[in-house]
Design goal:
By secondary structure, the chain is of the alpha/beta class. 36% of the residues lie in helices and 12% in strands. The protein has 33 helices and 26 strands. The strands form 6 sheets. It has an 8-stranded mixed sheet. The structure holds thiamine diphosphate (TPP) and magnesium ion.
Length: 1012
């Protein structure tokens, strides 16, 4: 068993040890043969030559010289002169040498016997500890690891022998902090090595030398390379013990009372709780007021109870009640619920320093790591709403598993948002519960990197590996992580190496798959026992104090258990804080009109189409903006982009926050939006929507191109949208089909989050969709999948459109006019509940000559709301008798059908557009059915039959027809592509043929006989 990735086969390699003095000797196998390296799946190890570069040759005669004696000083003077004239003329190692030593030379004459080569090599040895000391650190509580210690950590590799140990060396490292800094006194080699070992090879493995910022490394070295090891006071130790007792006894209590219940216990990693508490306390001391947390199953109940202070009797009651639904007194809506180790909560926690800190744990699904971006997005929203410009008052903390941190791509997607201007939260603290196993999978099968945290190196984040059996070391790194985050406002990672005492859950048998490890664990003392022993042995805490803590905790646990028996859960954690006053799906709610007063509309219109005189605008963009001005002035021909900007601008004026991200959204994938105008000379960007009002707060309107990620970015925006209901948060996919990269967010959060966790969101996803010959990947946003997830009952006719939306899990629309797009966006906020909105957004309609609206359609006098269905616009025949066919369709195919109808001068076919597919507008569809009593009913779509809206529409249309006595499913005729594996053809000409055939078929004279 090995908790690191490198294979155990390496254990048999030769151990190179010539300098066998005490603990400097290398405990584990070393790599000293290039041929052995091929067995490692790590890039960490370099060849001998690479790890210990040989300095520029020094003439042999000088090599034997004593450091800075008269002979070598002549030589050095020559070199020094050359270096002073041009530092590049000498080898870099000599450059370091001169910077470090020569300035102090006269004072250092007492250091007899230190040769130049020795100085160089000592520096390399020190550096090897700083870079690779973690590989020798005692990180595995089970001591089963056989990581390879690089030979560079062995003093004999540099030619030092036993006899050198008590010689004095000067080793100040230029521009370095800590005990090796340049103003440190001379030390013996032994004391230098002792301190290096203590510092870098103890219970903490510091990985930070990959950070290419001298200031940051120095900051860390100051804290790591302390002259003496950090000692905690008795009081601090007592607090740590108290927290550890809580953590341990909580799990013991659950295990004893409910021995067969799944709880994904923390046994083996109990140090997590004291560590987290320390991190929270230190963060609070340093100014953090609110923390958003995300974590998976492992230890979640313990965190809920001991960190977030969810009442223990409530947790116990959830176990005793066997996960029965809560029947609330005052509210009806309970949703579908979720298992207890997925639920979130929030709490105002007092801290040791007397401050209070708001903690919230975000609910999450089984899908490991999916909550990461959600947490970070929520933290960013908190920063916006609290004016936390420094990003120092709101913090995100993520707790990961070792298997999932290394394996799940969303980890990387989230990490990579951390420094982007529109996404940064000033650093997330990551803590990995590294129990050295993922379900039943060993690290050797689970990752290719040495550490499960290696992915974070890409970010220049410091990584602190720590032995979970050394409580004080865990607390130390937690403290350090909090300090790092508050100082540098960037991510930091703690790799808490522990073990899993039981199986994946309490019912699993671990020795089926990890027999060796299980055996060792059975004989291994829990961290609480280890710490108690340490305190007793060191005399820091008397036995009585320890027993008193233990008694107190056990007493409270029993009291809470007793209280749980009479606990009657009736209050749901639902629509609190910023969401207070919003309505649950069971409460009467309203959707307000979305039309805007004419003068506001025109003012906003002016603001979004006017550019500053001094902006050097590209001539094409200039023309687009001139056309926009004209649209506003004349009130005619308003296109999609202007409608969208009007929606945003009017919401801003009304005091709402608008945030819109996705790949290339600023210009727009289809070059239609141009929400950011790039000055052609300075490259600076101007955003008209940031200037709708005077002194508009910069972030009030945010539009930002995102990283090339769907899962991470959509998750982030979802988290953002969940903080405050008074914001319109939108994410646009480059093409709708890329949304499937974010499937977990759609499935697990957006479509079902309200039902599972009683949390609302009004997030809007814009998914460009439509068949225009761009091939299988750029035609379909997979509308059918979004519709399949809709929970509106196909058998039940609803006549209250507001209630219908409230009760439905989300809305899916395919809008065909700019005005209707304007209204559907505004409708998101002009109501007293929130619901996700999926928009099959257009591509070629963005510039379609007929896809235009008049400005009056946006005002409150004419079209005051979103039209869920657009009736036929151009009929002249008597609907009762003259209409032989009613084509129902959705999306841009309407324009093609209409054009064909015009071409054929066809007056007996009505075409009506279902703009809101879900929830299904029964009332309006039934009105149309009644309007054309004799018409053949056709559903026309461009997608293949197994895709698009057909399978969603058919049963609902059938229910409507039955209710009106208009037949049944056989009466619904289908026009569209035939079933297909791929969403669309890759051949443009085939596309054109298919498209014109389906349009012609929909308008053919003969009745349609398909499919029945
Ligand atoms: C995305 C995803 N894939 C698979 C699973 C099934 N699963 C649940 S726990 C687990 C192992 C997790 O290992 P690790 O991250 O090390 O956490 P641990 O359980 O060891 O604390 C797996 C594979 C899941 N929950 N989520
Ligand atoms: Mg694990």
């Amino acid at each position: 068993m090995a908790w690191f990735r490198a294979g155990s086969t390496v254990g048999k390699f030769a151990v190179r040890r010539t300098l066998t003095h005490g603990h400097y000797s290398v405990r584990r196998a070393q790599i000293n043969d290039q041929s052995q390296l091929r067995f490692f799946h790590s890039t960490l190890y370099k060849s001998k030559a690479q790890t210990a570069p040989i300095p520029q040759p020094v003439p042999l005669s000088r090599l034997a010289d004593s450091f800075l004696d008269s002979t070598s000083s002549v030589y050095l003077e020559e070199l020094q002169r050359a270096w002073e004239a041009d530092p590049r003329s000498v080898d870099e190692s000599w450059g370091n040498f001169f910077r470090n030593f020569v300035g102090d030379a006269p004072k250092q004459l007492g250091i007899s016997g230190q040769t130049i080569q020795e100085s160089m090599k000592l520096l390399l040895l020190v550096r090897a500890y700083q870079v690779n000391g973690h590989l020798k650190a005692k990180l595995d509580p089970l001591n089963l690891d056989n990581r390879q210690v690089p030979v560079a950590l062995n003093p004999d590799f540099y030619g030092f022998t036993e006899s050198d140990l008590d010689r004095d060396f000067f080793i100040g490292v230029w521009k370095s902090s800590g005990f090796l800094s340049e103003n440190r006194p001379v030390k013996t080699l032994r004391s230098i090595l002792d301190r290096l070992e203590e510092t870098y090879c103890g219970s903490i493995g510091y990985e930070y030398m990959h950070i290419n910022d001298r200031e940051k490394c120095n900051w860390l070295q100051e804290r790591i390379e302390t002259p003496t090891p950090v000692e905690y006071s008795k009081d601090r130790c007592k607090v740590m013990l108290d927290r550890l007792v809580w953590s341990t006894e909580f799990e013991n209590f659950l295990a004893n009372k409910w021995s067969t219940a799944k709880r994904f216990g923390l046994e083996g990693c109990e140090a997590l709780i004291p560590g987290m508490k320390e991190m929270i306390d230190r963060s609070a001391e340093l100014g953090v007021e609110s923390i958003v947390m995300g974590m998976a199953h492992r230890g979640r109940l313990n965190v809920l109870g001991n960190v977030l202070r969810k009442p223990l009797h409530q947790i116990f009651s959830e176990f005793s009640r066997g996960n029965k639904p809560v029947i609330p007194e005052d509210e009806l809506y309970v949703g579908t619920g979720d298992v207890k180790y997925h639920l979130g909560t929030s709490f105002d926690r007092p801290t040791i320093s007397g401050k209070r800190i708001h903690l919230s744990l975000v609910a999450n699904p089984s899908h490991l790591e999916a909550v990461d971006p959600v947490v970070v997005g929520k933290a960013r929203a908190k920063q916006f709403y609290t004016d936390d410009v420094e990003r120092s008052r709101n913090l995100g903390i993520l707790i990961h598993g070792d298997g999932s941190f290394a394996g799940q791509g969303v980890v990387y997607e989230t990490l990579h948002l951390s420094a982007l201007p529109s996404y940064t939260t000033g650093g997330t603290i990551h803590m990995v519960i590294n129990n050295q196993v993922a379900f039943t999978t060993d690290p050797q099968s689970g990752r290719s990197s040495v550490y499960c945290t290696d992915v974070a190196k890409a970010l220049n984040a410091p990584i602190f590996h720590v032995n979970g059996d050394d409580l004080e070391a865990v607390v130390r790194v937690c403290e350090l992580a909090a300090e790092w985050r508050q100082t540098f406002h960037s991510d930091v990672v703690i790799d808490l190496i522990c073990y899993r005492r039981f199986g994946h859950n309490e019912i699993d048998e671990p020795s089926f798959t990890q027999p060796t490890m299980s055996k060792v664990i059975r004989g291994h003392s829990p961290v609480l026992e280890i710490y108690k022993r340490k305190l007793l042995e060191s005399g820091k805490l008397p036995k009585e104090d320890i027993e008193e803590i233990q008694r107190k905790v056990n007493r409270i646990l029993i009291e809470e258990f007793e209280a749980s028996k009479s606990y009657d859960p009736h209050k749901l954690d639902w629509l609190e804080a910023n969401w207070a006053g919003l309505k649950s799906p069971d409460q009467p709610a309203q959707i307000q009109d979305t039309g805007v007063k004419g003068d506001i509309l025109r003012n906003v219109g002016k603001a979004i189409s006017t550019l500053p005189m001094n902006l050097n605008v590209h001539k094409v963009v200039k023309k687009i903006y001139q056309q926009r001005s004209q649209m506003i002035e004349t009130g005619e021909g308003v296109d999609w982009a202007v409608a969208e900007a009007l929606a945003f601008g009017t919401l801003l004026v009304e005091g709402f926050h608008v945030r819109f991200t996705g790949q290339d959204v600023e210009r727009g994938t289809f070059s239609h939006r141009h929400a950011a105008i790039v000055d052609q000379e300075t490259g600076e960007k101007y955003y008209p929507l940031k200037h709708v009002m005077e002194n508009q707060k910069d972030e009030m309107f945010t539009i930002s191109n995102s990283s090339l990620s769907e899962f991470g970015v959509l998750g982030y925006e979802l988290g953002y949208s969940m903080e405050n209901p008074n914001s319109l948060v939108l994410w646009e996919a480059q093409f709708g089909d890329f949304a499937n990269e974010a499937q977990v967010i759609f499935d697990q959060f957006l479509s079902s989050g309200e039902a599972k966790w009683l949390r609302q969101t009004g997030l809007v996803a814009l998914l460009p969709h439509g068949y225009d010959g761009q091939g299988p990947e750029h035609s379909s946003a997979r509308l059918e999948r979004f519709l399949q997830m809709c929970n509106d009952d196909p058998r039940v006719i609803s006549t209250d459109p507001t209630k219908q939306i409230q009760e439905c899990n989300w809305q899916v629309v395919n809008v065909t006019t700019p005005a209707n797009y304007f209204h559907v966006l505004r409708r998101q906020l002009h109501r007293d509940f929130r619901k996700p909105l999926i928009v099959m957004s257009p591509k070629n309609l963005l510039r379609h000559k007929d896809c235009k609206s008049e400005l009056f359609e946006f005002d409150d006098m004419h079209q005051s709301c979103f039209k869920r269905l657009l009736e036929d616009q151009s009929l002249s025949s008597d609907p009762k008798k003259g209409i032989r066919r009613l084509i129902l369709c959705s999306g841009k195919v309407y324009y093609e059908l209409d054009e064909e109808r015009k071409k054929l001068k066809n007056k007996d076919v009505a075409i009506c557009r279902v703009e809101q597919l879900c929830p299904f507008p029964y009332d309006l569809v039934m009105q149309e059915l009644q309007r054309y009593p004799n018409a053949e009913i056709v559903w026309c779509q461009e997608e293949p039959m197994n895709m698009g809206a057909y399978n969603y529409i058919a049963p609902r249309l059938c229910t409507s027809m039955k209710a009106l006595g208009r037949g049944n499913i056989n009466g619904i005729k289908y026009v569209g592509r035939l079933p297909s594996a791929a969403t669309a053809t890759g051949f443009y000409q085939v596309h054109v043929k298919e498209q014109s055939e389906l349009v012609q078929k929909a308008l053919q004279r003969e009745p349609i006989q398909f499919p029945w």
